[in-house]
Amino acid sequence: MTITTNDSAILSFSVTTNLVSETNGTLTLTVNRTGTTNNAVTVDFTTTNVTASAGSDYTATNGTLSFAAGETSKTFTTDLIDDDTQENTETFRIVLSNPVDATIAIGTNTVTISDDDVSTVGFTAGTTATAETNGTVTLTVVRSGATNTTVTLDFTTTNATALAGSDYTATNGTFTFNPGETTNAVTIEIADNATQEASETSRSV
Ligand SMILES: [Ca+2]
Ligand SMILES: [Ca+2]
Ligand SMILES: [Ca+2]
Fold first, then answer.
1. Cα 154 to ligand 1 centre (Å)
2. Residue 21 Cα to ligand 2 middle (Å)
């Protein structure tokens, strides 16, 4: 007598999407087996690019999951790559294939990687002292963090106790950091007048 059965092992990712930060390091994925559990089954997995790129955004990963008889869950990991580049949110997929003695129900898992990198800009110093005989004062702005984007920011002088026109030349403009640039500077003219004055201040913002 021959006994036939329609029962089979059914393999599914535990979730269909993962939202991660590139700083997470490692992502653990789970494949569950339902249906028949009394036989050994295998299934292959591999990563595939969507907008994220293997090698720069995550580590390409592939292998075979082997469920022993009675096993209902297997996990594997794939690594995320944390860089200093400011990027859009990107995705890749992990796909199950080649089931042996099993069928695949949910065989695609989409991983969405969010970016953590920003440009930070600021003056190198909060205050600058200069003598009026110097003629000019140069203020430097630097950017740190992500440097792969173009960043612009406006600046203008405002009076504190020094007066534009008589003590310094009112100055405004825009700093532009091109990709890769980390330093900008502006030079402001200081008036050397004949009047005796207390020390005076102006601000650049
Ligand atoms: Ca990335
Ligand atoms: Ca980063
Ligand atoms: Ca990044």
1. 29
2. 9
Report CA(76)–ligand 1 centroid distance (Å): 21
pTM, two decimal places = 0.79
SS3 letters for 102-125? EEEEECEEEEEEECCCCEEEEECC
Q: Given a cut of 50, is residue 4 above it in pLDDT?
A: no
Output the CA 86–ligand 2 centroid distance in Å: 7
Quote the mean pLDDT of the chain.
93
> Hunting for tokens 């089979």 — which residue is that?
8
List the domains of the chain with CATH numbers: 9-114 (2.60.40.2030), 119-204 (2.60.40.2030)
Mind listing the pLDDT tens digit for each residue in 80-94?
A: 999 999 999 999 999
Nearest bound ligand to the CA of residue 113: 1
